[in-house]
Amino acid sequence: MKQLKILFITFIFTFTFTFLKAQELLTPENAVALAISNNFDIVIAKSDAEISRIYNNKATAGMLPTINVTTGDVFNLSNINQKFTTGQEVKKNWVPVNSFNAGVNVNWTIFDGLKMFATKDRLAALQSLGEIQVKNQIQNTVAQVLTAYYDIVRQKQQIKALNESAKISVERVNLSQKKFDVGYNDKTPLLQAKVDYSTQQINILKQETVLLQSKIALNQLLARDANIEFNVIDTILVAYQPNLQTLKDTVLQQNFSIQFAQKNIEVAKFQHKEIKSQRLPQINFNTGYNFIQNNSKAGLQLFNRSYGPTIGLNATIPIFNGGMVKKQLQASAVNIATKQILVDQLKNDLDTKILAAYRNFEYAIKVLQLNEDNVKVAEENVKITLERFRLNQSNSLEIKQAQSSYEDGLYNVILARYNAKIAEIELERLSNDLVK
After folding, report:
1. How many other C-beta atoms are found inside a 10 Å radius of the C-beta of residue 54?
2. With a threshold of 0.85, does the pTM exceed it?
3. Residue 301 banded pLDDT, cuts 50, 70, 90
C-alpha cells in the first residue's frame, strides 16, 4: 500500500511538472532573444558579415610581401655529341645528368598607384556593410517575430471572447429549457439556443486550431522544434506615443537601409580609386637566396654550382592600353551617381512609408478607442436583454441579436488592438527602435 502511494505521488508530481513545462510562458522579450540567437536568416547574415571581416586585412589588399620557398631535383638521361675548337670530341649516349635547385624568394609591391590603400578601404567598407546587414536582418526578423507573437495573443483573446459568448448561450439554453418545461414557450427558442451554442463550440475548436498553427509558425521563426508547447501573455498593450517629426528625423539618419545604401556609395568610390591607380607606375621589390647545382657524367661541364643572394627592383609604367582605363572610370562615375540617386529614392520612399505608418497608427488608435466604448455598450445591452428574457419581457431573437452584437464588439476590440500593435511595430522597425 505504501509503495502504491509513493507511485501515485510520483505520477502526480511528474504529470504536474510536465504540464507546467509544456505551458511555459513565452514573453515577447524571450521570443525576441531566441530569434536573435537562433533565427536562420540572422545566423546566415552573421556568417556573411564574418566572411567580410576575415577578408578585411592588409594581405588581401596586397600590402604585404609574399615569401616563397622553391626547390626541385631533375634527373635526365642525355645523348651528348660535342666538338671543341681544340679538336677534342665527346660522343656518349645515356649520360646521367642531375640538376638540383633551391631558393627563398621575397616579392613585395611597394607602389601600385595607391591601389592597395583604396582596396583596404573598400574591404573595410564591405565589412561595415556586412555589420549593417546583420542589424537590418535582426530588425526585420524581430518585427516578424513580434507580429507572429501578438497574432497568437490575438487568437488566444478570440478564444476567450468566444468562451464568454458561450456562457451567454448556456444561459439562453437554461432559460429556454425552463420556459419550455413550464409551457411558456414552444420548443423553437430552445432548439435555436442549442444550435447557437453548438455553433460556438465549433468556432472555438476552429480558433484553437488556428492558435496551434500560429504557435507552430512562431516556433519556426525561432528556429526551434515546431512541437514545443508554450503560453503567451494575455493582453496586448499599446502605450506608444510617437512624434511624426522625430520619427522622420530618426528614420533619415538611422534607418539601416539608408546606411546600407550610403555605404555602397563608399564602396563604389573606393573601386573608382582602384581603377584610377592603373594610370600610375607599379614598382616591385624582390630579393632572395638561390642555390643551383648540376652534375653530369660527360660533356663540357661535369659539375656546376652557384648560390648566393639576389636583390632587385622592377617597374611597370603604363603608356597606352587602348583607352580601357578611361572607359572604366567613366562607367565607375556613372555607377556612383546611380547609387546616389538610389539613396535619394530610398529616402523619399521611407519618408512616404513613415508618414503612412504614422497615419495608420493614429487611425488604429482611434478605432481601438471607439471599439472599446462600443463593446462596453454591447456588454451592458446583452446583460439587460438577458435579464429581460429571464423576466419574459423579450424574446429569443432580441437576445440573439444582442449576443451577436456583443461578439462582434469583442472581436473588433481584439482586432483593433492587434492592428494598433502592428502599426506600432512597423514604426519602430522603420526607425530602428525594435532592438536597442
Report:
1. 10
2. no
3. low
